[in-house]
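Quick one: Catalase from Actinophytocola algeriensis, structure tokens please.
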Amino acid sequence: TGPETVTPTGAPTGAPKQAKGQQGEYLTTSAGARLYDTDHSLKAGERGPTLLQDHHLREKVMHFDHERIPERVVHARGYGAHGVFVGYGSAANVCKAAFLGDGVETPVFVRFSTVLGSRGSADTVRDTRGFATKFYTQEGNFDLVGNNIPVFFIQDGIKFPDVIHAGKPHPDREIPQAQSAHDTFWDFVSTHTEATHHVMWNMSDRGIPRSYRTMEGFGVHTFRLVNEAGETALAKFHWKPKLGVHSLVWEEAQMISGLDPDFHRRDLADAIESGAYPQWELGVQVLPDTPRQTFEGIDLLDPTKIVPEELAPVQPIGMLTLNRNPMNYFAETEQVAFHLGNLVPGIDVTDDPLFQARLFSYLDTQLTRLAGPNFNQIPINRPHAPVNDMFRDGFHQHAVHAGVAPYKPNTLDGGNPFEARPEDRPFVEVAQPLAKSVKVRQSPTSFSDHYTQPRLFWQSLSPVEKEHVVRAFTFELGKCYEQAVKERQLMVLANVDPVLCKEVAQGLGLPAPSATGRPRRVVPSPALSQVGQTWPTD
Ligand code: HEM
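--- reply ---
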């Protein structure tokens, strides 16, 4: 690797902060030839012109020209840290994953993010926050790709491009950078009332965390756990910060955005550097894996619903400690590739339609973002378990595979040393009694209650928290130009709570509508699907 220091992932914690890349005794080209001068191009005479034969000039500028890669299509702004996860062993009765075993230490990399702003946006905007954890377990990588809000805007991943298009800056002016304060976002959420629960959390203090260190995290979806006996349970993952949950008030967030747009990343990096290592306890709500996959009337496949902790307490199963800052932002935080399909034996997917779409989306986007199919060979993504995937070639292939027979079974390369064992099967084949043999393009009726849980959330807030929610709705809706959008969102709020609706309406100077109780959702139109594609003429 020449005179540069390349640090593999999983370097021992406390790796020297000063380990620098460019500290060799002399500079070289990327091909290792010693350089005499990197400050002057080669010219035909003192005042030029510059000669094309100056390979170093061309290589140096060429490499610089290609330093940028596409930012993530969502969650572009993020900040990461290394750490360790220690299992308590308390999950053994429901989950056989080895990294949850008593005292088992697993290296991790965590990336926190905002969802909608671009890479250069401010930290303290009102938005959902990503909380993605890569566990480098001995059984392969397990990625828990969650958020700081326990529910999501939509119930089906096919709507993800739509909700993100509505929330991202308008295509004409690219304003605004942050969520809300624009017509498309409120247009979308007021016409898709399944978003109401998530929006209530966004408009509450949860939408502007004080610090990443004081944020909860949620796996959001219901997962399926499997124990050694092959018994299954359904589960929801929770991260509980040791420092408690704290938020900024809006005025603080506004001022901080201006004074220090890097507030959250600075806070995390400084805390780790000073030895104040942030910690989160991982917990699970364990729910019976019944044929209907519901619990107390809640459809567990609906990602817009929580299971109240009073009904299913969160049971602690391990502790996460972040104790090492990345050495290089690009190499680690930018190139890390999380994927929900990175599962280990004992943790499995469910039929939640949002979950299912995500299983496609992450691999697919990383194919472009990280330029080719070999991104798991990038140091930050490399598993700490042996890899024998029989994948070959492709852009950015770094492995030099030995042998002639990348298939199995074979009789030329000595068969395959990694014989499959039934217990390693990543996906349990649990019978799905609800699955029918007909094809359906619609939401189940059990997904159609859009207001009970947002109301529960509102009712759980203290008076001052309620006041913050009212102010947030009033401020954000006040930024809409379209009167109809404001009025439609007020109708949504009327279905959540009359006081909430009345106070926001007052702030907007509009009449408060009455509750209808009706959800608004996309109704499939069979006629549409039969119409051929037409292209706009201009
Ligand atoms: C990125 C969470 C829904 C597509 C992310 C990240 C998080 C996250 C935390 C950032 C990962 C990182 O730090 O690198 C969630 C949660 C969801 C959800 C909790 C709902 C429960 C979806 C859906 C889709 C999707 C439904 C698509 C159908 C993406 C894509 C990225 C991303 C394309 C960028 C990944 C990359 O470039 O590496 N999501 N997401 N997400 N998410 Fe989601």
